[in-house]
From TrEMBL:
Keyword Cell wall biogenesis/degradation: no
PANTHER family reported in the protein's UniProt record: BIOPOLYMER TRANSPORT PROTEIN EXBD-RELATED, EXBD MEMBRANE COMPONENT OF PMF-DRIVEN MACROMOLECULE IMPORT SYSTEM
GO molecular function terms attached to this record: transmembrane transporter activity
Species annotation: Roseimaritima ulvae
Protein name from the UniProt record: Biopolymer transport protein ExbD/TolR
Region ranges (Disordered): 1-25
Biased segments, Acidic residues type: 1-15
Topology with respect to the bilayer: Single-pass membrane protein; Single-pass type II membrane protein
Entries under InterPro entries matching the protein: ExbD
Bilayer-spanning residue ranges: 32-49
GO cellular component: plasma membrane
Lineage of producing organism: Bacteria, Pseudomonadati, Planctomycetota, Planctomycetia, Pirellulales
A Gene Ontology biological process term: protein transport
Amino acid sequence: MASEIDPFDDSDEEEAPMRMSKGNRIDEEMDITPMIDITFLLLIFFVVASKMDPTQTGRTPTADNGLAVSAKDSAVIFVQRGSGDKAILKRLDDSKFIDDEDAQITEVVDYVQKEIDDGKQQVMILGDFDVSVGEVGRVRKMVGDNFDDVETYIAVKEE
């Protein structure tokens, strides 16, 4: 009968060295830390280098469908491209509002209040296609901050 090897046997018998089989070794994992570092550096670079300017000119999109608003029932404010970043604001009768922004707010509010008192039901902001989105938003904010119950519409050009 063959003798079994007892691993807990403390006898001084000399044993043959145990050999480990050379099985398939699992490849070491690749260190992706440098790749992650480069990715974050590129991300930071593009965030810092990109130009985030809310006064950039945006084209007015064409209307697919929407609500028809009558200009005769609205206090109309025209927003036209001016020199530099500032827009020129005009009334329906083509008279200009003042250029100073603080005085312009008062003048626009007075104009809208007069139009509402004359029976107008909403405010329509008509902007040229090359007026910055920030300027149209500024006019909308002027009206919205001073008139809570008045609907404000921004006109969209149809082609």
